[in-house]
Amino acid sequence: MNHLIHLKHQDRIGWIGLGEMGYYMASNLQRYLASLHLNMIVWNRDPAKSAKLRHHGVHIAKSIEDLVAQSNIIFTSLANDAAVQEVYTQLIDLANQVEHPIIFVETSTIYPALATELQKQLAACPQKHTYLQCPVFGRPPVAKAAKLIWVTSGGDEKIIKKMCLYFTTMSKSIIHLNTKDVAKACNFKLIGNFFVVGTMELLAEGLTLAEKAEVDPQSILKFIEAFFPAPAWIEYSRKMVDGTAVVHKEDGFSVDLGLKDVGHMRQLALETGASLPTADLAYNHLKAVHDQGLGDMDWSSLINSLRSASKLPSMEETQLTKGEKQ
Ligand SMILES: NC(=O)c1ccc[n+]([C@@H]2O[C@H](COP(=O)([O-])OP(=O)(O)OC[C@H]3O[C@@H](n4cnc5c(N)ncnc54)[C@H](OP(=O)(O)O)[C@@H]3O)[C@@H](O)[C@H]2O)c1
User: Locate the 6-phosphogluconate dehydrogenase NADP-binding domain: which residues (predicted)?
Assistant: First the structure.
């Protein structure tokens, strides 16, 4: 670590995790930095994804160590708690050795206790690093359009205000929880995602009933657009009717990530003594899809579990039959 540089006033931004979300978020932030003749430094476990960002002008870190040495603000967007734990174990070790304080902005959906633990460990470093938990709402195309809903927690008002300069380059609105308690943002995110998965469960059940009762699904879509004109209702009902639910999760949210989130919701409900039966239903339906080896599919493919229980062919089979007829 003797090559670590002492950072002065200029912000040097590092980004770790360039998956479906991280790639678009980092691209939008980099676009803003480039307008100021600045460049961020990025690291991804699979280096091919970092290379894809090279044309945006980013520097590619040789290692996490390299990135920490050159950054005083580090964003992370990682798949799950295990990935966050693994990356932050390294980050905390390195953060203990640098001269400069670092602001960490963790944007993944993780269990609240993990966020609290990371905040505690980073605050205990002599440099008194700051840890913000800032989960985001919106799927990858929304991230690409810089229209995410951003949630803030941790730090103080001054830090959050300063960081909003960067958050706004990736989002259409920011919800400030006005709390240093980073667990609250994780709880918030899990509750928000509960509304999404609950909507999907309802749509999957209703659309399955429509098919069994021989009600034209296209007319159901028209009804949803007129009566429930909310993006999640419209988007997920279309996916389920078109069969695009069964496509690979690219530009979507995978069954496996969904299982992680719904698992966290159920755990939170257990810990707090809340009753959350819809999460149990959705979990079982997602798990059935996962158990068929389809954990990479978009999570709206949970409809297949209901179709199977209703003795209907899977969406894949329906799409194949449609294709053969055309
Ligand atoms: N997709 C959505 O619609 C959505 C919306 C809001 C929030 N989120 C949340 O945002 C986070 C990222 O989601 P995503 O859809 O971008 O997931 P993703 O496409 O699966 O990307 C996951 C990222 O985590 C990295 N990663 C996984 N395990 C790792 C490890 N052990 N060490 C280092 N890096 C590791 C991956 O690196 P590799 O490239 O090397 O695999 C990749 O960069 C998740 O917490 C998710 O719940 C997702």
Answer: 12-176
- From-to residues of CATH 1.10.1040.10 in the chain: 186-325
Catalytic-residue membership of 128? no
Where are the CATH 3.40.50.720 domain residues in the chain?
13-181
* Residue owning the nearest CA to atom 7 of ligand 1: 136
CATH topology of domain 13-181: Rossmann fold (3.40.50)
CATH node for 186-325: 1.10.1040.10
Measured CA to CA, the distance from residue 145 to residue 143 in angstroms comes to: 5
Residue with the nearest Cα to atom 29 of ligand 1?
Answer: 83
Per-residue pLDDT, 7: 41
Q: What is the pLDDT of residue 315?
A: 81
- Determine whether the shortest distance from the Cβ of 46 to ligand 1 is under 6 A: yes
Q: Tell me the mean pLDDT per 10 residues along the chain, length 326.
A: 46 96 97 93 96 92 96 97 98 95 98 98 94 96 97 96 96 97 98 97 97 96 97 93 68 90 98 98 97 92 95 82 66
**Alpha helices (runs of H) in the chain, residue ranges in sequence order:** 20-35, 47-52, 64-69, 81-95, 112-123, 140-144, 157-167, 183-212, 217-227, 231-242, 255-272, 277-291, 303-309, 315-325
Ligand 1 and 250: CB distance under 6 A: no
The confidence score (pLDDT) of residue 5 equals: 40
Q: What is the SS3 assignment for 324? A: helix
